[in-house]
Design goal:
Length: 176
């Protein structure tokens, strides 16, 4: 089950809420890497390290980050909305709206990272990076402190097992 004490044992698809929580940590790690890249560029320009970092950030948000949003939008949020629990439904709707905003910021940021990855841009906009990191930080805080504990209370084991199977399938992983 979900471990809000941040047990460092890697979660499996058998515990999908723990996997979502772990992904939140990785997203925040990527935001920290963005901050480092922003500080790196004025001193070192668009060197090989900057290009590789930009590529790695894009790869993360284009795959794992995308899957994470799908895990919530396709699996978790609909389950919470169908539970006929007002707080869960309201929270799911709010978080869906936040995903739209995060996706919009990401698309603009991805263009800049693409230019860095090709050696064509040697700076990042402080406001853009700040807005992206802050929006994700607030979003993740809400999910970790309200959404995941609420989902743990509302969803039954069958729903969680199916959610884990769906998450695995989304990533091309076969479960027994």
């Amino acid at each position: 089950m979900i471990d809000l004490n941040q047990n460092k044992i890697a979660p499996t698809f058998d515990s999908p809420l723990d996997m979502l929580h772990a992904c939140h940590e990785r997203i925040m790690d990527q935001c920290a890497t963005l901050q480092k890249l922003m500080r790196h560029l004025p001193m070192h320009g668009c060197d090989a390290q900057a290009q590789q970092t930009a590529q790695a950030i894009m790869r993360y948000f284009d795959t794992a980050g995308k899957f994470h949003h799908q895990d919530e939008e396709v699996d978790l949020f609909p389950l919470l909305k169908s539970a006929r629990h007002k707080e869960a439904e309201d929270l799911a709707l709010r978080l869906e709206d936040e995903h739209l905003y995060l996706d919009e910021i990401w698309l603009a940021l991805r263009v800049k990272l693409g230019e860095i990855s090709l050696g064509k841009l040697a700076s990042l906009d402080h406001k853009m990076i700040g807005d992206f990191s802050l929006a994700y930080g607030r979003h993740i805080m809400l999910e970790n402190t309200r959404l995941l504990p609420l989902a743990l209370k509302i969803l039954d084991e069958t729903q969680l097992q199916q959610m884990g199977k769906n998450m695995a399938a989304r990533r091309g992983v076969s479960l027994p």
